[in-house]
TrEMBL record:
Record Pfam families: ATP-synt_A (PF00119)
InterPro entries to which the protein is assigned, alphabetical: ATP_synth_F0_asu, ATP_synth_F0_asu_AS, ATP_synth_F0_asu_bact/mt, F0_ATP_A_sf
Alphabetic keyword roster: ATP synthesis, CF(0), Hydrogen ion transport, Ion transport, Membrane, Mitochondrion, Mitochondrion inner membrane, Transmembrane, Transmembrane helix, Transport
Topology in membrane: Multi-pass membrane protein
Name of this chain's protein: ATP synthase subunit a
Localization terms from the record: Mitochondrion inner membrane
Family: Belongs to the ATPase A chain family.
Record-linked SUPFAM superfamilies: F1F0 ATP synthase subunit A
Chain ranges passing through the membrane: 12-31, 69-89, 101-118, 138-158, 170-190, 196-223
């Protein structure tokens, strides 16, 4: 019984071939391709408005050098948002519940921001490891602490996204299972549980959107420190 709750996080396979790549690429197929007109329908208008809003929110704190990352960060935001929301549909697989995938997204981008800072302004980037005015006896300990906090940033990005989405999916499955089991025994309690399930689903939609935004926002803040 306990194992069945975690079956939804197992990567689906067809004839021994993992389908996680297909589940990652499928959300991109739902985005309408631009046509010859500027505005073709309401869907493309909503898409353009969302992309413009996301780009402004991410690029406002950055200077002109950071604007080169606009395409990468906006594309990542749309990808994570699409995968997280589609993963809430029944009988679907959510790739962002896999820590390996989230780390594969977080680590290269974090490393790129770090290398950008070391290449453009090495003194300022290394200066973050030692706050100004630190007493001499505390310098080795603070350097070690700041270096550790710097190195665990990609792990924190991946674990945060994985844990929040995994917990939400487990809660939805647990409450839906309880609602189905109580339907024939205690219908009133089952209706109350179903109401809680609907409210939790709305909450999970908000969590899916917020976690995608937080993931990309933290990357933009790491970039801001290094440019």
């Amino acid at each position: 019984m306990n194992l069945s709750f975690f079956d939804q996080f197992t990567s689906p396979c067809l004839l021994g071939v993992p389908l996680i790549l297909l589940s990652m690429l499928f959300p991109a197929l739902l985005i309408p391709s631009p046509g010859s007109r500027w505005i073709t329908n309401r869907l493309s208008t909503l898409q353009s408005w969302c992309i413009d809003l996301i780009t402004k929110q991410l690029m406002t704190p950055l200077n002109k050098d950071g604007h080169k990352w606009a395409l990468i960060l906006t594309s990542l935001m749309i990808l994570l948002l699409s995968i997280n929301l589609l993963g809430l549909l029944p009988y679907t697989f959510t790739p962002t519940t896999q820590l390996s995938m989230n780390m594969a997204l977080a680590f290269p981008l974090w490393l790129a921001t770090l290398l950008t800072g070391l290449r453009n302004q090495p003194s300022a980037s290394l200066g973050h490891l030692l706050p100004e005015g630190t007493p001499t006896p505390l310098i080795p300990a603070l350097i070690l602490i700041e270096t550790t906090s710097l190195l665990i940033r990609p792990l924190a990005l991946g674990v945060r996204l994985t844990a929040n989405l995994t917990a939400g999916h487990l809660l939805i499955q647990l409450i839906s299972t309880a609602s189905t089991a109580l339907l024939s025994i205690m219908p009133a309690i089952s209706i109350l549980t179903t109401t809680i399930l609907l409210l939790l689903t709305i909450l999970e939609i908000a969590v899916a959107m917020i976690q995608a935004y937080v993931f990309v926002l933290l990357l933009s803040l790491y970039l801001q420190e290094n440019i």
